[in-house]
Automatic annotation (TrEMBL), chains A, B, C, D:
The gene is rhaI. Keywords: Isomerase, Manganese, Metal-binding. The keyword Protein biosynthesis does not apply. It comes from Tropicimonas omnivorans. One of its GO terms (molecular function) is isomerase activity. This is L-rhamnose catabolism isomerase. The keyword Manganese applies. NCBIfam families: L_rham_iso_rhiz.
Amino acid sequence: MIGKDRIAAANEAAEADLRAEYDALGAVLDRRGIDIAAVKEKVAGYGIAVPSWGVGTGGTRFARFPGAGEPSTIFDKLDDCGVIHELTGATPRVSLHVPWDDANPADLVAKGEELGLGFDAINSNTFQDQAEQAASYKFGSLSHTREEVRSQAVEHNLYCIELGRKIGSRALTIWVGDGSNFPGQVNFTRQFERYLDSARQIYAGLPEDWRLFTEHKIFEPAFYSTVVQDWGTNYLIATELGDRASCLVDLGHHAPTVNIEMIVARLIQFGKLGGFHFNDSKYGDDDLDTGSIDPYRLFLVFNELVEAADVPGFDPAHMLDQSHNVTDPIESLMNSAMEVQRAYAQALIVDRGALGGFQEENDALMASETLKRAFRTDVTPILQMARLEKGCAIDPVATYRASDYRGKVADERPVSTSGGGGIV
Amino acid sequence: MIGKDRIAAANEAAEADLRAEYDALGAVLDRRGIDIAAVKEKVAGYGIAVPSWGVGTGGTRFARFPGAGEPSTIFDKLDDCGVIHELTGATPRVSLHVPWDDANPADLVAKGEELGLGFDAINSNTFQDQAEQAASYKFGSLSHTREEVRSQAVEHNLYCIELGRKIGSRALTIWVGDGSNFPGQVNFTRQFERYLDSARQIYAGLPEDWRLFTEHKIFEPAFYSTVVQDWGTNYLIATELGDRASCLVDLGHHAPTVNIEMIVARLIQFGKLGGFHFNDSKYGDDDLDTGSIDPYRLFLVFNELVEAADVPGFDPAHMLDQSHNVTDPIESLMNSAMEVQRAYAQALIVDRGALGGFQEENDALMASETLKRAFRTDVTPILQMARLEKGCAIDPVATYRASDYRGKVADERPVSTSGGGGIV
Amino acid sequence: MIGKDRIAAANEAAEADLRAEYDALGAVLDRRGIDIAAVKEKVAGYGIAVPSWGVGTGGTRFARFPGAGEPSTIFDKLDDCGVIHELTGATPRVSLHVPWDDANPADLVAKGEELGLGFDAINSNTFQDQAEQAASYKFGSLSHTREEVRSQAVEHNLYCIELGRKIGSRALTIWVGDGSNFPGQVNFTRQFERYLDSARQIYAGLPEDWRLFTEHKIFEPAFYSTVVQDWGTNYLIATELGDRASCLVDLGHHAPTVNIEMIVARLIQFGKLGGFHFNDSKYGDDDLDTGSIDPYRLFLVFNELVEAADVPGFDPAHMLDQSHNVTDPIESLMNSAMEVQRAYAQALIVDRGALGGFQEENDALMASETLKRAFRTDVTPILQMARLEKGCAIDPVATYRASDYRGKVADERPVSTSGGGGIV
Amino acid sequence: MIGKDRIAAANEAAEADLRAEYDALGAVLDRRGIDIAAVKEKVAGYGIAVPSWGVGTGGTRFARFPGAGEPSTIFDKLDDCGVIHELTGATPRVSLHVPWDDANPADLVAKGEELGLGFDAINSNTFQDQAEQAASYKFGSLSHTREEVRSQAVEHNLYCIELGRKIGSRALTIWVGDGSNFPGQVNFTRQFERYLDSARQIYAGLPEDWRLFTEHKIFEPAFYSTVVQDWGTNYLIATELGDRASCLVDLGHHAPTVNIEMIVARLIQFGKLGGFHFNDSKYGDDDLDTGSIDPYRLFLVFNELVEAADVPGFDPAHMLDQSHNVTDPIESLMNSAMEVQRAYAQALIVDRGALGGFQEENDALMASETLKRAFRTDVTPILQMARLEKGCAIDPVATYRASDYRGKVADERPVSTSGGGGIV
């Protein structure tokens, strides 16, 4: 871990400038009728879950280029997640992935408590074959034509719930790779019937206070069709299953040019928005750092979330889901958590009264300007001040680099080998 | 009209070759266990509706380049539709568009009877302003923020139903241009609530034996968001309205790369496939001739339709919807109707028993080959023989050209002027 | 026109706040080693051309919904352009479109001088048929199969040059709609040979101190192929023609997901970037207001331009090209000009030394952050101060609305009628 | 291997039907003025290279699900390639990938001679790190910022040439993963300068009778920018390097909706089409079986190739490049080779005289129909007869399955383990 002293020392050097910039921003917002302290308080209360798999270096089917000091166990991963939260104060929970992170629940809980981390939604994995596995998922899992494969996949999900209960999770996230690579390979209707049948069995095993999130994706690893290809199918699933089932939106899982913020609005309207996997993308499911490609799109998603904040029972889960192929994953996750906070803060300062008026009057230009004005506002001082007041770092990346955490764990952890990706 | 004698004379020259090719194909299919006569009978019984607006030359926002002898009234248009059906025997119904085609219902019925044409779904138009119109649709119609605009649009749809009843239509098709061009211009949720409210009023006025088709489209004429942007939203509408409401799928209204045949399967599975607007596209809503760009995709759609043929009550409406910018619209519509028949015939000869087996066994390669084998089969002789036996043309385009129908109507109809499109 | 007094009065009310915000921003930038005054000076010196056709309400193939007080002549249009420049000080030139704007050159020059406006690149139009025209462009213009059509199109371009010389233009912009709607309709190679042959004839008539810009576009109005479909073909044209020929990049003319800023970099590197048509888009050539959909993409383009500022002879033309379907065109053009200035200012404050270092070290995260930091900076006070010091409006839209310019010209100008678009 | 007797026995059962269908097709083509024997001869003379890596089961970043009897060495792979050619007679050459296939050249040549296989273009690999490698390609190879990495990558390519010379290859294919994942990570211009500099060093080492193929790709494994992102950049490379450098077109490496056949035509026109990597795709670089998703697009590419057949010196390389994730790779490669032959045969029977006339007259409908007519023709009997006469299998997949080749090698080859893909 980084340590309070180190953080405090780094903050001390930056605090005066921060206070000046915070005050200047406060004055600007005050002229717009916005109380900067209230915004800061909401930002400070915001938390997003980190995916355990995100702290390892990601790769593509072509190659994986590991960095130094990669985590080799879930406990290493939790250490890294602890650093992220220690420095940013923005990531109080970790989302586990089973079987990658399978371990003694008591040990997981103890480690989480040690680091001040809780456990978010648990993720099942039926898109890979494990060494000890009886049946293969090569041709599908929950929607496979053969009953024994589907049963195995259902059982795995029930196992995940069981593990999750023991560590304090409250939700299960299902994403499957089921689909097809050739027209004709699957019967779309029968495949989806089988998926629904399996999902119903999992839902039947869901504790009363849990939620079930299903995730859609247009393509990859299947390249002609995907059984849960879009929000339309995802909505059907959530409706068929019941009240505790809802849809997870991953920002990179849509067809090119699709208006994602509108999908978010529709799911909210019909009570089926379960949560998010945040990341950014330019081409496909690129899993790039959140806000790195199109930050305005991220803001527009948060604009919908803030707009819906008063909807009774509205409480979507927020998680990051990224692949860090060329950066230190800890740095990327810290920055991404802060980008999400930034979008949230910007959405909070939208003048919603004015916006509603412009919408009513069809004043498209001023409605657009109202959003742009909030988006243009550099809310960095708000985020920094929220961190400072929590004892976290004003500049998490700089503080992290100065600590040489990575160098230290590199000395302790086994060297991770280069991977060839899936093509060979 | 072309005339039975002219058609018969043209057919006579081609008949011997056709019979030879039909017999050769019959032998090929017989070896696959398929009775060519049974396929021919189904093809002969198939009909698709022609859009009245399709017989005029289309255009873009940049320009419209009219051809000679353009129809100037709905009665001219019906004449052209009559020619299409006379030559192909494949287009027994015309789909009207109001107010473009508004006329005395008795006159429409009389003209239809004269030409052997019935009337398919009627289309309302609330995406343009008409000269006499009280309120403008500039900022929307069924979902407009102002009640009087929505009422006007609802009234127009009820008027369309009324007209449709008098001419024998049994369905109303609603497509609106409502959406937005700027983030923030509309509140997605409130806009959709207003849309649903208006649609419910129309549905309330729907005769018991009518169906209501709603059409989704990802973009154009709105370029940031569209109120019915995809099949997910379209499904919500159909579900909210009731049993007689269902979804119309236009093949060009989807995001790039989207798997359309899978959407078709989903809507069938959930009882909400209302019908089609057939056309083809490469980039956006290009409205190109059906089957001209990706004929295999068209076949895959028909593969789903034939697969679902035994679903009780399954009876989607089939319509063409194209923009003929560089061809004689009569020729394009004839060819397109035949392309749809071709895809239907190809889908009929898929070996569904074998396909189901390969799907069950996850034999992806042979499943694909089973579809490809049917698609590769040149079913032209079946289509031609079906036409010959109906007294229609073996080669409709050649017979049409030989008749100089276009030259004759060009002498009688007023000259249509070049249009500048919407940009000036 | 709006009038200096009205502007000054409006500015007076806002000046104190502006000075406070400008000073606060100056302090922030100073801590980064940036002199705000130097940035302001560059922004003040920046100008972008307004398209004459942009001041009329645009439309789609479905409809055009005109606003009140539409300009009916080029002189009306110049008045509107004058207002834009009077209020923003950012649009010193107008780009004419012939034949839409054809008029007595002396009158144009006189009007321009009266308004303080010059004339930018002149645009030819061979994508529409004009009433008096001998041959039709239905099947192409510069690349048409028939020699007389190509000659007519070449002549028209030479006429545009002639007109342009008389009014002080220094460049010709060619965009054609030539392409095809069906596979097979054109022979790609022969069509492009004909295009090049025609373009060479135009280039031969280009004055020594002129430049020729050719514009590529992936689709629309042709929907299967376009003769200048992408920057690759555009580059071939510029190379074949000669040194004074270069490529125009319209931000909405690319395939989905294409990295436009990289195309800009390539064209700069190979000496063939002629200029820009700025706008924004989500789906196709949506012609939305610049920066309204993806402002970070606009910034990334300007990042390339500032990066290349020292390349000898580097002087791309900057023009707006938008379709204003739901806003007052004057307002949209003012805002868009300011969005371009904003992106320019943000690109100016990128720490290029640091960026180069991070690139050299493959520190992807910090390189990204270096750009994001500049982008996040709200440079509005710089833009406002530049305007204030020029005697232009701190808030151009508010000042424009307060002036009721639109209401006044609506009383004087003929009412523009609703258009049906190209589809009927 | 399968064995002549087994093939002959299988053919015997199918020969009578084939002869009947061949004769019937011959009669059809004869009526169109086409000599079926001449088409058959050209098809029989056509060969396409198989990629050595294609005979192993492919995977994605999520997982790889190996099949039974996977090849474990290049000699196993050559055995599998031998089977493909034995059965289809369509794949006389293998394209090696180094270092995956690195081996004693004399052994490779001997094995090739034993199997009747030659060696096509050799492929270098600088997108993965090898165990013994000094410098990492994590941040690029030919375009890396550090000279020692670029040198290592250049050296590797020179090594590939050296190996290729010894086994009879005549071309080097370069595809790199270089690019970036974040805006700002690389300087586009300097990165491309470095790429060109490295490529020039490789070109300098190219034997006089060799060709250099460079391959472009829009994204993956880099997700924000790719150094050779499209054919425009690829063309610049080929032009900068010299006459023996040309562009390789992989059908799956383009932005969505891009007109690939037009790119092919442009590269032919400017003398820079080097060859193809054939496959099919729906979303991205899906590497699906050739012709499985959009067979008409494949035909349109071959239409350009046949159109250009008389261009002096025109001799593009034809290779397959696919990832077989859910099929037996031998079956997929056989089918894909036959799909390419099919597209070639269909393109050969296009009535080019008629097509040229329709193009000249702008008869778009009949031009389209001329292509469609050839495409609709089921040329299967031509392909089958060409195989029968060569002693290859009428039905390669059925004959292969009956031989149980896969079962036999599964007994001999080591079991391949499931792969986790690049993500963990």
